[in-house]
Write a structure and sequence with these properties.
Helix content of chain A is 36%, strand content 11%. By secondary structure, chain A is α+β, with helices and mostly antiparallel strands. In chain A, strand 1 (46-48) and strand 2 (56-59) form a beta hairpin. The relative contact order of chain A is 0.14. Chain B is α/β, with parallel strands linked by helices. Chain B folds into two domains: 11-199, P-loop containing nucleotide triphosphate hydrolases (Rossmann fold), CATH 3.40.50; 225-321, 2-Layer Sandwich (Hypothetical Protein Yjia, Chain: A,domain 2). Chain B has helices at 24-33, 53-56, 76-91, 111-120, 124-127, 142-148, 150-157, 172-185, 236-251, 292-296, 310-321; strands at 11-18, 40-46, 62-67, 100-104, 128-138, 161-165, 191-195, 198-199, 225-230, 255-264, 267-274, 277-278, 282-284, 300-305. Chain B has an eight-stranded mixed sheet, sandwiched between helices. The longest helix of chain B has 16 residues, at 76-91. The chains are: A alpha+beta, B alpha/beta. Chains A and B meet through helix 1, strand 1 and helix 2 of A and helix 9 and helix 11 of B.
Amino acid sequence: MCSACGFPSLPGHWTDAGARNPGSRLRLRFTRLAMVNRLLAPYRLRAHDDGSTPGLQLMAPSGERVLVPDLEALWTEAARLAGTPIDPLSPRSLGDA
Amino acid sequence: MREGARADGRLPLTIIGGFLGAGKSTWLRHQLHRKAFGAVHILVNEAAEMPVDNLLLSKADRVSVLAGGCACCDGRGALVAALRAICAEQDRPGSCRIDRILLETSGLADPGAIARLVSDDPMLARRIMLEDIIALVDALHGPVQLREEALGRRQVESAGRLIVTKPREVPPLQVARLVNTLRQLNPVAPVEGAEHGEPFGLPPVPDAEPYALPDLAGASAGPIRSCRLDISGGNGWAAFSVWLSALLAARGDDIVRVKGVVTDLDGRLLVQSVRKQVQPPEMLPEPEQDSPTQATQNDVLILMGRGINEELLAHAWTRFCDGPAIACL
C-alpha cells in the first residue's frame, strides 16, 4: 500500500490472481480490458486503461468519467451509469433485447 | 518454515455455524478431543451477554469469547479486533504457533457475512484465508428452522460441509427427508451425521421426499439449482474472471456458491465463492501424471443458485467468448 495515497487498500482484487510475473500481469490487464468492454458495449459504456494510472477509467456516453480501482467497483459504477446492472445473463447482454 | 504452515503465511479460518441449539459446541468439543483440527485458537461468539459456550470448550488451549453481539452484525468490530489480535500474537517471536482459527458463530450468524467481513478488512485480508464453512443442523428441529427461518437456509446454503446432529432419536425417514432437503438447498456440500460429535451413519433413503420450504421474507424465492459450466473453450482466467465478477455483481444474492478450477498460462487457479464473496483464488500445484481425474475437472465450474440453468449459463458464456473484439486503447 502506498503511504501517500493508500492505494491499493486491499491486497488486490480476486480477479488479479494468477499472473505470476510482470509480463503475465500486463497481458492479464489488457486482455481483461478487452473482455470488460465486451460486456459494457451493450450498455453504451466503455472502459479505458492508460497503462500507468492504477485501476480503470469508465466512460459514459454523456462524457462522465469515473476512475475505479477494481472490477467490483467497475460493475457497481457501470450499473449506476447505465441505470441497470451489467448482467451477462440478461437479454440485453445476450443480444436478445 | 513450520511444517503445515501456508507458503503465503496466511492463517486458515474455519467457520462453524448452525442455528441456535444445533449442537455446535458439543460437536466442536469432540473434534478438539480428537485433535481433528490440529493446534487451534478458538473464537466463540455468543449473541447473548452471558457466555456459556466457552465453558463447554474449557479444555481447549486457546479460547477467546466474543459475547454480547453477533459477529456478523452487532459484534463485527469485536470479531475484527479479536482476529487481528490473534494475527499479532502469531507474529510475535517465540509465540505458540497455531494451525488454524476456528470461529464458532452464534446461532444467529450468517457465515457469508462473516466471510465478507474478513475479506473487506485490509489487514485480515492479507493474513487470513477462509478455509471452510461447516454448518450443523439439528435432526429434530432442523426442518422447522429451515421452513420458518430465512437465516437457517442461508447458513445451509453457504456451507462447504453439512453435519446433521442428534439423529439417533429421530425416525430414520424424518432424517432422510431432512438430508434430502439439505441436498436440495446445497447440492455441493457433503452431508454427514454426528451424535455427540461421533460420526453417525445417516439412513440411506435416497428417494425420501424433501420438506417443502415456503417462500420467506429475507429468503430468495425458488429452489437452488446446481449448474455445471464448461469454460474450456474460453480465453482463460482473464475472460472468466471478468465474466464471473460481472455475474456476481448483478446476481450475487442469487448465486450462492461457485467452485472450480480454471487453467491459465501460469497454472491452475482454484476459485470458490460464497454469494458475492470470492475467496482469493489459489494457484494449485500441477496434477500428478497418473491422475487423470484431476485433469478432467479443470475448467469445469459448479455454480449453485436461483434463476439460473445450465443452458442459459452455457449460452451466455459462449456469447461472451465469441463477442466482437472491441478497441480499448
